[in-house]
Amino acid sequence: MECPRCTFETTNDPYRGTDARHHRRMRLSAIAHAAGVEIDHCSGCGGVFLDHGELAKIQIAARSDTKPTRAPTTALQRVYARAREHGAGTDGEAAAALVCPSCGGEMAARNWGFGSEVMVDTCIECRGVWLDSGELEALEDLFR
Ligand SMILES: [Zn+2]
Ligand SMILES: [Zn+2]
Predict the structure, then answer these.
(1) Which residues are within 5 Å of ligand 2 (an ion), measured at CB?
(2) Which runs of consecutive H residues, i.e. helices, occur in the chain?
(3) Residue 63 sits in which domain range?
(4) 29-46 pLDDT per residue, tens
(5) 71 falls in which pLDDT band (50, 70, 90)?
(6) What's residue 47's pLDDT?
(7) How far does residue 41's CA lie from ligand 1's centre (Å)?
(8) How many domains does the chain have?
(9) 103 alpha carbon to ligand 1 midpoint, in Å?
(10) Minimum-distance ligand to the CA of 29?
(11) Which ligand is nearest to the CA of 105?
(12) Disulfide-capable partner of 76 in 21, 40, 41, 72 (CB 3.0 to 4.6 Å)?
């Protein structure tokens, strides 16, 4: 799987010579999450891709976690800020739609959970979820 956010430019393309500019996407690497699911992590931007149902498992695991609730992190504030941005409906500079790294479908910002006002990028085809760096941790805090 490849990161829907990160591209990097390389001039080291053996097929087109060293002058050719070639855009490549960062590869996601599978990492094990404490909730017992395997998530795909981008080492470039810190984003993660979750298959359909995995975020729900993480939510359940977070609820049974007995750690004391921490103060909202800056990442959580960022999640809320994003929700407000999306809610405002003033596009003009709407972010380009992400392409699902799993199936190539279009991703759209969707409300996660009931009235949580947290927006996550969800694939309209396979219902996989993309979370930017820090957003997974922020959601885990929120789930507790
Ligand atoms: Zn990335
Ligand atoms: Zn998809």
Answers:
(1) 100, 102-103, 105, 123, 125-126, 128
(2) 54-64, 74-88, 135-143
(3) 30-143
(4) 999 999 999 999 999 999
(5) low
(6) 96
(7) 8
(8) 1
(9) 17
(10) 1
(11) 2
(12) 72
